[in-house]
Amino acid sequence: MKKYSELKKVLNFRKLKYFEEEHACVTHYLQTVEDDAGKYYKVKAEEYLKAKGQSLVNGHSIKIPFKFDDIPFPPPQKPDFTFIDLFAGIGGFRMALQNLNNKCVFSSEWDKFAKKTYEANFGEVPFGDITKDETKNYIPDSFDILCAGFPCQAFSIAGRRGGFEDTRGTLFFDVAEIIRRKQPKAIFLENVKGLLNHGGGKTLETILNVLREDLEYFVPEPKILNAKDFGTPQNRERIFIVGFRKDLGINEFHYPKPSCEKIIFEKVKEKNPVSVKYYLSDTYLNTLIEHKKRHASKGNGFGYEIIPDDGTANAVVCGGMGRERNLVYDDRLEDFTPVTNIKGEVNRQGIRKMTPREWARLQGFPDEYLIPVSDASAYKQFGNSVAVPAIQATAKKIIETLKKNDTKRK
């Protein structure tokens, strides 16, 4: 029985070929071959393997069932529920739901570097652009939960009722279209806190109207949850939207309550000294200091921030500001010789950026989670990710609600 690492050699997973549709089909098929979802990938998967001189027939090169025991986070063998992972990023939703013994039967993500990280950890290449019908056509019919951390976009709702048709041209429309076609039992959406007031509140109003009226889902009022309340020292507020298909008879849902335990940055700080490359040059540091002074003189609070070991990090976000507002003190550096091209010398105050691994921990990813990309890509990926503990706490409530409903119906 082949392992996943051997399959990657067979399929020549490297560079841009890594992200072909065929690789998505093969990896999805091998993870769902024993499920009903497997039939959606079978034809393409076997066609591609045949072209490679391989076979899915027992006794030949690739045998069924297939072993995924050499990847960090293999799918559960006997899951409670199934879900799909839209706008998957690096798999924050997947990590959370797999931790609760649920299985992903479809994933999609357009960014090639995020795909690389996702595949390295879950043994599955996500499909590409979810706005395309050829991608939507791979989505199985029978899955339980739709998960999506979709980007927020403005809707053309001036003078209209803000219904399904008014969301066309936005990524939410694609989510809504999939819900309409597939009718999952539950939906779980995440977005930035700003969605609450986006477009004067009209954007969220339209989304809720589509889910409640057009698609006929019970959707309680959305909730803003903060990652720092769920076991990670990061001040990250996000809006969560949960819904249940109305015919299930579910008319009550309670979002998770914050944990009483306060976690501080020291909990996720690197235990060993880190490379000099993470330390700021004195030139760069002085630039940040002067920039902050200029804003302070105008009464603004913009600028860099140094997070104490007993403090809480600011939200990790894409761009330089996400790193500059999350600097730390670390006086363990002994060799100040630069390893990158910098202006000036390495600062002697022990001020450095957080490492990608520290960002991973702030987002709730375990240390077993692989980071196979450059630091620049890693910062972007973790900045765009969901905070796993907050997602998991909410998903647990969704699953409890579904299980309670199943018990009632029996």
TrEMBL record:
Catalytic function, reaction form: a 2'-deoxycytidine in DNA + S-adenosyl-L-methionine = a 5-methyl-2'-deoxycytidine in DNA + S-adenosyl-L-homocysteine + H(+)
Pfam families for this protein: DNA_methylase
Enzyme category, top tier: transferase
Keyword Membrane: no
EC number annotated for this UniProt entry: 2.1.1.37
GO function terms (MF aspect): methyltransferase activity
Keyword Transferase: yes
Signal peptide segment: none
Matching InterPro entries: C5-MTase, C5_DNA_meth_AS, C5_MeTfrase, SAM-dependent_MTases_sf
BP GO terms, sorted: methylation
Family to which this protein belongs: Belongs to the class I-like SAM-binding methyltransferase superfamily. C5-methyltransferase family.
PANTHER family: TRNA (CYTOSINE(38)-C(5))-METHYLTRANSFERASE
Alphabetical list of NCBIfam families matching this protein: dcm
Name of the protein this chain belongs to: Cytosine-specific methyltransferase
Source organism (scientific name): Carboxylicivirga marina
